[in-house]
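agent> Task received from the user: take the single chain below, predict its 3D structure, and emit structure tokens. No templates, no multimer pairing.
agent> Plan: (1) validate residues, (2) run structure prediction, (3) serialize to tokens, (4) report one or two observations.
agent> Step 1 OK, no nonstandard residues flagged.
tool_call: predict_structure(input=
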Amino acid sequence: MKCNERAVMTGTTHWERAAQRTGYFPFTFRLIVLCILVVGFSFESPAAGHLLADAGWQSSTIESSSADDAFQRGLIALKEDRFETALAELTTAESKHPFDAAVRNFRGIALARVGRNVEAGSEYHAAIRLDPRMEDAYRNLGFLEWTEHQFESASVNLEHAIELSPGDSFAHYYLGRVQLDTRRYARAFQELERSQVPWPGDPVFLIEAAEGYTALGRQPEARNVLHRLATMTLNDAPSLHVASLLLAVHENDEATDLLQKLNRQPALSSLMGSI
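)
tool_result: status=success, residues=275
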């Protein structure tokens, strides 16, 4: 399931006036209106490396028209999910302007989308060195590290992103996921709630959330998550895990129903007999 793509559009009147003053209307204005870009992310498959990032436009030092064109084509290709093309165009832009933090950040996104995570991390680090206040690069790096199970460094970079932009909902969301994966449940739910990002229908995530709520004694929230899980088609082991959590929060009838449903499946008879 993909999160809906979102575009944050900037007021054109303000940017038209700024463009007229600076003379950068043909490039900067088109880019800002086109794409304060959000790249789709598959919440249910974080290992796939799909990146959700409010990849907000940062002011760039690009001046060469050929590099401008390559950068713009790269951003358009990213928005259209043509990641190999995006990478080629952004590589061209970077070859002309290797010290432009925005180019390095967007090239990192393209690299992540084609599965070249080590190189993507290098690009995010380069963007941060060039512009230590580029919140997007910290968030993108933190997200990438989360997908690679580098939880401590992911936490540090996502915390830094939030320091720079306290209202970044996705930085809060990713930090919440990091904290959940490391069983720091109180902080995890604090960040997830702050983010206001809808939760994905990923059974692994929802089971972790139910475990966290149960551990914190937040039984109403645990029940809500478990009721959602009970309606899903799950494999054998997750179903048994959900049943055990239902019993832990005294949802005995629903746990019994789930176990009986499992027991009616012949392939599970031996597994059920072992519990």
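agent> Step 4: summary for the user.
The first helix runs from residue 12 to 22.
agent> Done.
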